[in-house]
Amino acid sequence: MPARWRQLIFTPLHTAVTLLLFVEVSVLAGLAAFPAVxxxxxxxxxxxxxxxxxxxxxxxxxxxxxxVFGLALLLLLPxxxxxxxxxxxxxxxxxxxxxGAWRWASFNTLTLIYRxxxxxxxxxxxxxxxxxxLMGMRLGARVQFNTAVVADQNxxxxxxxxxxxxxxxxxxxSAEAGExxxxxxxxxxxVTIGIMxxxxxxxxxxxxxxxxxxxxxxxxxxxxxxxLWGGVPARCLARPAAAQASGAAGPAATGSAAGxxxx
Length: 263
Ligand SMILES: CC(C)(COP(=O)(O)OP(=O)(O)OC[C@H]1O[C@@H](n2cnc3c(N)ncnc32)[C@H](O)[C@@H]1OP(=O)(O)O)[C@@H](O)C(=O)NCCC(=O)NCCS
Description:
By secondary structure, this protein is α/β, with parallel strands linked by helices. It has helices at residues 3-46, 51-83, 99-117, 126-134, 241-245; strands at residues 92-95, 138-139, 144-145, 156-158, 163-164, 169-170, 173-176, 179-182, 185-187, 192-193, 198-199, 204-205, 210-211, 216-217, 222-223, 228-230, 235-240, 256-257, 260-262.
């Protein structure tokens, strides 16, 4: 398609797709709300109470209904991946107006529905790991997610006993000069990703490594096993003592903490 035509249709098309997505979101949220609303209506019709006691029970039931809605969404959204032909983020480079970008957008819409509607209530519980697994993430045992900001789960791998800290951004896509660029992110076992860190596409983090609070791991960064990385953009702050001793780690150590030598 000629560039001028692409420029002309981009904003109207983008707006139309956004409105269409609102309809999709309404259908999915409505389906997930159905069991809770149905249950609440049944309770309202059969509750043998009157006055404030009745009002109180119905209020508690309505609040409980929100959690039933959240759990229903947890199962419904992963199933919707397949019904809506949005199984995951594709890997590669895609112009905004392309089938690949559409697949990315429609998959991440499902993730966004959960982020905006419920996910904060299940941070650091096995339920958030279940959600990411059902959305396609390859996930080890006992992984803790204390963040709502995760996308592109099918391109992300996390090993056993790792911690994705508070409000970390973990994504496998970036928008770059008119193109969507996506690449897998691989996080090993026993990795700690500190509070508010940002992990961008293509990053590989070795077993036992630590990413400091607030670090920004530029796209494609490779963090070796046991290393400590921090700062913006992140750089290696320390390597495992064993690697330094074998001479594999470059510059001499200047100190040590927690089995690492500072660079
Ligand atoms: C990076 C971190 C592991 C360092 O802890 P530590 O091993 O006790 O080391 P220190 O506090 O002695 O700091 C060591 C060096 O790292 C630097 N540093 C510490 N925190 C840093 C950060 N967030 N960003 C960049 N550098 C940092 C220090 O300035 C120090 O530098 P120096 O050796 O040049 O003086 C820790 O500060 C951190 O960010 N932990 C993340 C924990 C977390 O968020 N977990 C998730 C919970 S939800």
